[in-house]
């Protein structure tokens, strides 16, 4: 499969390295308005470097394009590439508004191409294992969860992260990982309540979101830009028979603690993460490419990605008004 990469920043470089190592895939072109970044990605991937998309499309025979651009640029490029009949792998979030995300989805359907949005957390072994364990009944019926995601305030990349109109802020850009996972785990959301704290100097944005699901499950989510420590992810998923816990700073496997059995003894089972030769970003893109090749359904659908945007924007609205937001149906 011939594939190109548009955007050669942090994620574009990750795609360049992974795609270069992927059997049956050839990176034929990489594009960035910064020639130095394009040349760097070209050196990693073995592709030709370009500084504009139109020249790439004129000179290369492509089947798929990976969009690793800032969020505010997703929609115009998805629409342009869909019209050209190209399949699209686009970094998350899909777009800054639900209307734009749905328009992107509809355009790809109209032109008969696939649209995949990179909600990569579903491909992280510990999260994927937690999803399977929670649905296996090992902790009974999963009813509550808490997800945390902490990182330094994103710098560089032309300053677009600090512009809320371009990045969407900590909820839409960072917490959306856990929003998507929580919806994958528990289903449709009934209501959203959120609060955000922001500081200009030094820059910090901290968000707390509570999701109440139609299944009666509840998830509390924390997202933090400006955290002074190492990048950290944590979660707890509680059922009526036990709890699944993960802390990226402490363990490399799931800690599943079950309720006491008939003997009164506590059971603690360590479930190691699945062995993997590649990182989750590799597995995610390889999965999307396989879906293109065999027509199978992806682990993350375009509708899932639109729904994550809808819930994230509801959280933004709740944080602005101080009131909970009652949700309607799933995005379609």
Automatic annotation (TrEMBL):
InterPro entries: Gfo/Idh/MocA-like_OxRdtase_C, Gfo/Idh/MocA-like_OxRdtase_N, Gfo/Idh/MocA_Oxidoreductases, NAD(P)-bd_dom_sf. Gene3D superfamilies: Dihydrodipicolinate Reductase, domain 2, NAD(P)-binding Rossmann-like Domain. It comes from the Bacteria. Residues 1-119 form the Gfo/Idh/MocA-like oxidoreductase N-terminal domain. It holds the Pfam family GFO_IDH_MocA. Residues 136-325 form the Gfo/Idh/MocA-like oxidoreductase C-terminal domain. Belongs to the Gfo/Idh/MocA family. This is Dehydrogenase.
């Amino acid at each position: 499969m011939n594939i190109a990469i548009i955007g050669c920043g942090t994620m574009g470089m990750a795609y360049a390295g992974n795609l270069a190592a992927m059997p049956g895939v050839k990176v034929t072109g990489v594009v960035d308005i910064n020639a130095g970044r394009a040349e760097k990605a070209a050196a990693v991937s073995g592709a030709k470097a370009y500084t504009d998309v139109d020249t790439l499309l004129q000179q290369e025979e492509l089947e798929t394009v990976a969009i690793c651009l800032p969020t505010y640029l997703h929609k115009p490029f998805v629409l342009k590439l869909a019209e050209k009949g190209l399949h699209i792998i686009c970094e998350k979030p899909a777009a800054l508004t639900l209307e734009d995300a749905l328009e992107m989805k509809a355009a790809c359907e109209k032109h008969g191409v696939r649209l995949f949005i990179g909600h990569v957390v579903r491909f992280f072994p510990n999260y994927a294992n937690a999803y399977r364990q929670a649905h296996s009944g090992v902790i009974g019926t999963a009813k509550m969860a808490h997800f945390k995601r902490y990182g330094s305030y994103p710098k560089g990349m032309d300053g677009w992260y600090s512009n809320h109109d371009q990045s969407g802020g900590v909820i839409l850009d960072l917490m959306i990982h856990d929003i998507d996972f929580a919806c994958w785990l528990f289903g449709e959301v009934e209501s959203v309540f959120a609060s955000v704290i922001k500081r200009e100097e030094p820059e910090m944005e901290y968000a707390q979101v509570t999701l109440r699901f139609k299944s009666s499950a509840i998830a509390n989510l924390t997202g933090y830009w400006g955290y002074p420590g190492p990048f950290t992810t944590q979660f707890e998923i509680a059922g009526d028979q036990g709890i699944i816990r993960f802390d990226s700073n402490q363990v490399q496997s799931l800690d599943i603690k079950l309720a006491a059995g008939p003997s009164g003894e506590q059971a603690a089972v360590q479930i190691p993460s699945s062995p993997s030769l590649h990182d989750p970003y590799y597995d995610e893109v390889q999965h999307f490419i396989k879906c293109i090749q065999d027509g199978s359904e992806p682990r993350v659908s375009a509708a899932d990605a639109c729904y994550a945007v809808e819930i994230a924007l509801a959280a933004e609205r709740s944080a602005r008004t101080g009131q909970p937001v009652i949700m309607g149906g799933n995005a379609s």
